[in-house]
């Protein structure tokens, strides 16, 4: 979690750092700060609260200087206070550091520093310990007397950073400056993302390219254990162990326009409305009408290898896990391959026996989620072929997997995942089609699926037109005490996903369950101020859902139904509100049924006055365990 931005160039660093932090605010927003070196002193502004608060401080007293570092925080060690906000300083007060990650052995490092009696800590953070450690190693390496040429000071600082990081257990993306070394920033990463933006007579460091894409689209995605020394007109990458680092300058896929809200009041709404395009992009060039199948070159597997897959494990967290759960139904039904879903956080620590022919997919929008990355690494360590389904190009999961499929959903900035979910479902449907066609699906069945998939973007457009109707429903239920969601088969995980959206952004109590579980206990919750939402397309299990709806009605529970086609006629007598989305093949329905529920969560949150894009206690990408 947390976002960091660094700048060294000829422009005033303050506005650039602040602008970058605003773009990274989705990564954490409980405190923020900057350190900018102006001549012979380090100007620091930091405070608890949002970037806007930091902005006020910087307007009141603008810090001068053309190089500096900055940070937006999602607290792990220490409360979100002014004191715990980054940057943190070393004992000399000359070295300032920002950090994204967790230093697991910070207590023992701190004790070691305290033992020599020269260190005093003013925050509760692990970051301050790292700043002191680097500072003390740097100071200890100073030549006994006399000044040192600036170039040697730079390499001395880099050596101190390496030596400190060799003692660290945990994860870090860091950036630091030293008052005595002009126009120089050092960055390093392990487990937390860090990208170098290469500009003209200026360079940048950031947790995510969105912070710097307004200034440059040339980026170097740093690898774990890279240490980068950044100056205005050059940079040098080496490893923590001191070896020369390999790197490649890539072009960032998106532009500044893509990360603007445009006319939408919130990123979440913008991203919900982008879904026709993002689903189309996820399918683009991947459907072959001639061969009645899909083409997924990124899997890096031959037809024979794909043919030999005997079992699939899908893993991820949160929304990605819900997509995986629908993927399980899809892969079993469409491809006929036994499939299991594993919470990434459990899978990585469990010794789950798997057969040799198991293929593992790690699903992650950000490609940086610590638990999913841990699961991927454990799976690869055990020798299983492990593929990624990621949105973030060049993310750690994408780079560390044996192959995979990019979602191409475009940047997702709203903390609540929306378009990445439907893109993940689209990819899982393409994988189902590919593997199914290698097994039992005929050409005509393949064609039927392709035709249904091709209709999907238009059907999404039609579904989005329901937004005003859904807003009315949200207003009607805004004073409810919570919401229960129910669904069967492909739409049971949609119930989980809808409940997650409601919890995240409205803070209302919400739960998702398989409809049939109602009578096994949940029915005790049913009462007039707790609406039940049934996701019940007109499919093979429609009548079963209808029975469950009757059970809720009999206990005076309000019912909202999301259905397709003729379902609406049969629901009229039993549901208080009905939302009808276009009909499609059963396994494709989740892409359409989830959209009104994303909209419902959104409109409810607005109605309740919540901060939709920055819900409390959350951050977009969870790079800590
Ligand atoms: C929910 C949400 C989270 C993420 C989860 C995994 O709206 O955003 O539950 O889905 O943290 O994130 P990724 O997909 O980046 O691995």
Q: Sheet bearing the most strands, described?
A: 8 strands, antiparallel
What percent of residues are in strands?
A: 15-25%
Low-confidence stretches: none
Give the bound compounds.
fructose -6-phosphate
Radius of gyration: 26 Å
Shape: globular
Multimeric organization: single chain
Tell me the structural class. Answer: alpha/beta
Work out the number of β strands.
26
Spatial order of the strands forming the largest sheet = 3-2-4-1-10-9-11-14
- Termini gap: 10 Å
Number of helices: 19
Average predicted local confidence, pLDDT: 94
- Helix amount, in percent? 25-40%
Structure description:
The chain is of the alpha/beta class and 625 residues long. Helices cover 36% and strands 21% of the residues. The protein is built from 19 helices and 26 strands. Strands 3-2-4-1-10-9-11-14 form an 8-stranded antiparallel β-sheet, with helices on one face. α1 packs antiparallel against α2 (51-60), α3 packs across α4 and α14 packs parallel to α19 (589-607). The protein is globular and about 90 Å long. The termini are close together. The mean pLDDT is 94. Fructose -6-phosphate (F6R) binds at residues 317-320, 364-366, 369, 372, 416-417, 500, 504, 621-622.
């Amino acid at each position: 979690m947390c976002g960091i931005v660094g700048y060294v160039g000829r422009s005033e660093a303050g506005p650039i750092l602040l602008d970058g932090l605003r773009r990274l605010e989705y990564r954490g927003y409980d405190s923020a700060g900057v350190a900018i070196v102006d001549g012979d002193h380090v100007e620091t502004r930091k405070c608890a609260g949002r970037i806007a608060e930091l902005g006020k401080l910087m307007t009141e007293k603008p810090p001068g200087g053309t190089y500096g570092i900055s940070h937006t925080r999602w607290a792990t060690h220490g409360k979100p206070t002014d004191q715990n906000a980054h940057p943190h300083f070393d004992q000399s007060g000359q070295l300032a550091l920002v950090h994204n990650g967790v230093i697991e052995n910070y207590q023992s490092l701190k004790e070691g520093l305290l033992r020599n009696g020269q260190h005093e800590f003013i925050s509760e953070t692990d970051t301050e310990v790292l700043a002191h450690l680097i500072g003390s190693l740097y100071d200890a390496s100073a030549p006994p007397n006399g000044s040192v040429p600036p170039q040697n000071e730079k390499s001395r600082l880099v050596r101190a950073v390496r030596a400190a990081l060799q003692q660290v257990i945990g994860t870090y993306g860091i950036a630091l400056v030293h008052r005595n070394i002009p126009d120089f920033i050092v960055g390093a990463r392990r487990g937390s993302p860090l990208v170098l933006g290469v500009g003209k007579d200026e360079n940048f460091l950031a947790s995510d390219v969105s912070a710097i894409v307004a200034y440059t689209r040339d980026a170097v995605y740093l690898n774990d254990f890279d240490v980068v020394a950044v100056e205005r007109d050059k940079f040098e990458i080496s490893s923590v162990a001191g070896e020369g680092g390999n790197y490649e300058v890539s072009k960032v896929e998106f532009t500044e326009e893509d990360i603007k809200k445009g006319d939408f009041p919130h990123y979440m709404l913008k991203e919900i409305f982008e879904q026709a395009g993002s689903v189309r992009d996820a399918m683009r060039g991947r459907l072959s009408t001639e061969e009645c199948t899909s083409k997924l070159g990124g899997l890096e597997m031959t037809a024979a290898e794909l043919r030999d897959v005997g079992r699939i494990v899908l893993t991820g967290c949160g929304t990605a896990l819900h997509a995986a759960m629908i993927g399980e139904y899809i892969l079993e039904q469409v491809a006929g391959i036994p499939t299991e879903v594993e919470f990434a956080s459990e899978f990585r620590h469990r010794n789950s026996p798997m057969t040799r022919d198991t293929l593992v997919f790690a699903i992650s929008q950000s490609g940086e989620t610590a638990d999913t990355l841990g699961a991927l690494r454990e799976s690869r360590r055990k020798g299983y072929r492990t593929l990624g389904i990621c949105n973030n190009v060049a993310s750690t999961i994408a780079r560390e997997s044996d192959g995979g499929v990019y979602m191409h959903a475009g940047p997702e900035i709203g903390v609540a995942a929306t378009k990445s979910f439907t893109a993940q479902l689209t990819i899982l449907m393409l994988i189902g089609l590919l593997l199914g066609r290698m097994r039992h699906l005929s050409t005509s069945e393949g064609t039927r699926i392709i035709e249904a998939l091709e209709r999907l973007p238009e059907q999404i457009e039609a579904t989005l037109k329901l937004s005003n109707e859904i807003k009315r429903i949200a207003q009607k239920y805004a004073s409810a005490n919570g919401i229960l969601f129910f669904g069967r088969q492909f739409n049971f995980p949609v119930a989980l996903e809808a409940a997650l959206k409601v919890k995240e952004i409205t803070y209302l109590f919400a739960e998702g369950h398989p409809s049939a579980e109602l009578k096994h206990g949940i029915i005790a919750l049913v009462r007039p101020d707790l609406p039940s939402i049934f996701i019940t397309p007109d499919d093979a299990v429609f009548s079963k859902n209808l029975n469950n709806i009757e059970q809720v009605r009999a206990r005076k529970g309000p019912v909202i139904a999301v259905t397709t086609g003729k379902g609406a006629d049969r629901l009229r007598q039993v549901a208080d509100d009905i939302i009808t989305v276009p009909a499609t093949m059963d396994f494709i329905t989740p892409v359409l049924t989830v959209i009104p529920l994303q909209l419902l969560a959104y409109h409810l949150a607005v109605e309740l006055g919540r901060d939709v894009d920055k819900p409390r206690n959350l951050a977009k990408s969870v790079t800590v365990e």
